[in-house]
Write a structure and sequence with these properties.
The chain is 62% helix and 15% strand. It has helices spanning 2-10, 20-52, 55-81, 96-124, 133-160, 163-188, 196-224, 230-240, 276-294, 310-323, 360-377; strands at residues 248-256, 262-271, 296-305, 329-340, 343-352, 381-388. Helix 5 (133-160) runs antiparallel to helix 6 (163-188), helix 6 (163-188) runs antiparallel to helix 7 (196-224) and helix 10 crosses helix 11 (360-377).
Length: 395
């Protein structure tokens, strides 16, 4: 309820999340709330740690301080990511958000490594923990704040499809676990002389390092070029096939230039006997309508295919029957037939299963296998095959 109030109070036109200005305001709201909440929690825990002499609580306080710095980076990244395209960056600056998330991740790991060392020193040189009920209540309060902060960032991240906010949400939920363990150790330390505080401090620090590593993995994937969202690809395929004369879609490639900033290129199969002006008009309309609907920049390449010739269909059926016997093959596209009688060129592309490693030798073996099986059906068949890759991993 508080989340909805903050969104409606501070973000004008908050429902229009496709608008870059609205998206930027979501990022600002998440960052400002994160800075305020984490500075508050860090101050509380530093005070409790100072009063109780607990290294685990102090480590948790600095973890919150790093979260405040992360929120500040979030604000800056949304500002930079929303800069308009320029000559040096014709597709905008959206990937700055991924870089910001990566900086946050390394910052989190750095804090974790520092407190591994500090906590180990506490085990070697233990200090008595002073348990008090009010500091304990403050720790419980900080857990509740972090729970809310986690759901707050998760909701905002989902609304605007932000990797940074999703990472921040994950970090907040991690803090809930670490602070809960710290609070438990605070209670246990009141009943034992063992350096529980130091051991818990190491566990907290290791958890911080693991969280940072997980965030590095999550944020570096889009920078390296991860497979696109399956739902986006499926929706593009389904919507494009609803257009008149478009009978097939393949070779879909999605380039990510930041959250919700995608350039998509694909091949659309169309009848070869239709007017080039008519099909161009349909393709042009599809590019514009689909780009607007899915918030992408879509480029369509036309592949003319023969859909009415019975002889071509007969040859195509022969090819399909052979491909169905080869487990590495996922699909076929761009089928053409050139020639007749004693010499017939069958030209087509096949897509191989992405789970199977295919090197050049294996490609040659697959092509030879297909050619051999088709010649057994008709000695006049001569195959010109291209091994294609599935860049979306969507079957």
């Amino acid at each position: 309820m508080l989340t909805n109030f903050l969104i409606s109070r501070f973000i004008k036109n908050y429902k229009d999340t496709d608008d870059e200005g609205v998206r930027q305001k979501y990022g600002y709201l998440a960052g400002v709330v994160g800075i305020f909440a984490n500075i508050l929690l860090s101050s509380i825990k530093l005070t409790v740690g100072f009063i109780s002499h607990s290294i685990a609580i102090t480590a948790d306080a600095f973890n919150n301080l790093s979260d405040a710095a992360s929120s500040l980076i979030t604000v800056v990244s949304f500002k930079l990511a929303n800069k308009p395209a320029d000559k040096e960056h014709p597709f905008g600056h959206g990937r700055v958000e991924y870089l910001a998330a990566l900086v946050v991740s390394f910052f989190v790991m750095m804090v974790g490594f520092q407190f591994v060392k500090t906590s180990f020193d506490r085990i070697v040189n233990p200090t008595k923990i002073n348990f008090q009920i009010i500091p304990f209540i403050l720790l419980l309060f900080s857990i509740l704040v972090k729970v809310w902060l986690g759901f707050f960032n998760k909701k905002l991240g989902k609304k605007i499809n932000s990797t940074t906010l999703s990472a921040t949400s994950m970090d907040a939920f991690s803090d809930v676990i670490t602070t809960s363990v710290v609070a438990l150790s605070f209670v246990i330390s009141n009943f034992t002389s063992l350096p529980i505080d130091g051991y818990i401090g190491i566990l907290v620090a290791l958890f911080i390092i693991y969280s940072g590593f997980s965030l590095v993995k999550e944020t570096i994937n889009p920078l390296l070029g991860e497979a696109p969202d399956a739902e986006l690809v499926e929706n593009i395929q389904k919507d494009l096939l609803s257009y008149e004369y478009i009978t097939g879609v393949h070779d879909i490639i999605v380039h990510n230039y930041g959250p919700s900033k995608f350039m998509v290129s694909l091949h659309a199969e169309v009848p070869c006997d239709i007017s080039i002006l008519k099909i161009h008009e349909i393709i042009d309309r599809a590019e514009k309508e689909m780009s607007k609907k899915h918030n992408i920049l879509l480029v369509i390449h036309m592949d003319p295919i023969n859909t009415n010739n019975k002889e071509v269909q007969k040859c195509k059926d022969h090819v399909i029957s052979v491909l169905n016997t080869i487990p590495e093959i996922e699909s076929m596209h761009d089928f053409r037939m050139v020639g007749e009688n004693e010499y017939i060129n069958l030209i087509f592309d096949v897509v191989v299963d992405h789970d199977i490693h295919i090197d050049q030798k294996k490609e040659d073996e697959i092509i030879l296998q297909i050619d051999k099986k088709l010649k057994a059906i008709n000695p006049a068949y001569n195959c010109l095959i291209t091994i294609d890759k599935n860049y979306t991993f969507i079957r």
